[in-house]
Amino acid sequence: MCLLLFAYQVHPEYPLVIAANRDEFHQRPAAPADWWEKDHILAGRDLEAGGTWLGVNRLGQFAVITNYRDRDSPLPGARSRGELVVQALTASHDGWSQLQALDAEAEHYNGYNLVFGSSQGVFSYSNRSRKRAELEPGIYGLSNHLLETPWPKVRRGKAELERYLASGDLPALAPLVDLLANRQQAEADELPATGLKPDWERRLSAMFIVSSDYGTRASTGIVMDRNGEVGFLERCFAANGDQTDEREFHFSSTT
Fold it and tell me: CB 3.0 to 4.6 Å from 144: which of 6, 27, 69, 75, for a disulfide?
């Protein structure tokens, strides 16, 4: 994922609301969201490395990963970051134990941020900051830096999510995914400096990215209510930004 927005324990009826865009090279093969029979995971699948970028499980737990945009060269022989989402969704130990395990293996991966948990507790970890945290209630945003780094797309997305929470649309999933479709690019003086050329820095500043080789491949909205009901909507897109698929799921978590 390259943009994650979520509200944790903000709405009294819906303690967890998630909206996320996956940005990736269009040539990298992937399968749309579906249930993984062996692991009881609902997620898309990266067909190159076998992991995923975002998923939920039957227990009402979720996990999402974003890459950390590094100036450094990729780590030779690095393990797939998508496996960390699967590990978080299949782990048998508590959140703090998972954070410790992530930190112990931090140097085996290129830069990432992982957010995981449930409506009862949300945790975050970055192998760049090495910060382990259990989050307080609030509205959060994450792109390709650290959690709550105020890049323009993060600020814009958080404001859109706040409006959604106040709109009365909950628990409708379509308006939640709609807010991820904003293609507005940041002005030059707002752009972060991450080592990219200015034209690419601006292109990637949009919440929804459209380009021929790299862009937004999927938009996902997830709503969990206080009774354990989960709604999940994914839309997939082609390189020109046109929608190619939409899948919606509803289930009762077993927690």
Answer: 69
CB 85 within 8 A of CB 66: no
Domain ranges for the chain: 3-252
- DSSP β-ladder status, 62-67 and 112-118: antiparallel
Q: How far apart are the first and last CA of the chain?
A: 26
| pLDDT tens-place string over residues 190-247 | 999 888 999 999 999 999 999 999 999 999 999 999 999 999 999 999 999 999 999 9
64 within 8 A of 114, measured Cβ to Cβ: yes
Calpha distance 88→61 (Å, rounded): 9
Number of neighbours of residue 163 by Cβ within 10 angstroms = 12
What is the rounded distance in angstroms from the CA atom of residue 218 to the CA atom of residue 30? 10
Compute, in degrees rounded to 10, the torsion defined by CA atoms 230, 17, 177, 183.
Answer: -160
Please tell me the predicted confidence (pLDDT) of residue 73: 67
Q: pTM, whole model, 2 decimals?
A: 0.97
Q: Are strands 41-46 and 121-126 parallel, antiparallel or unpaired?
A: unpaired
DSSP single-letter state for residue 106 = G
Question: 5 and 19 in contact (C-beta within 8 Å)?
Answer: yes
Crossing angle for the helix pair 82-90 and 95-104, nearest 10 degrees?
A: 150
Phi and psi for 84 in degrees, rounded to 5?
Answer: -70, -35
Angle among Cα 93, 97, 98 to the nearest 5 degrees reads 80
Q: How far is CA 161 from CA 16, 92, 177, 251, in A?
A: 12, 31, 10, 23
Q: If you classify domain 3-252 with CATH, what class do you get?
A: alpha beta
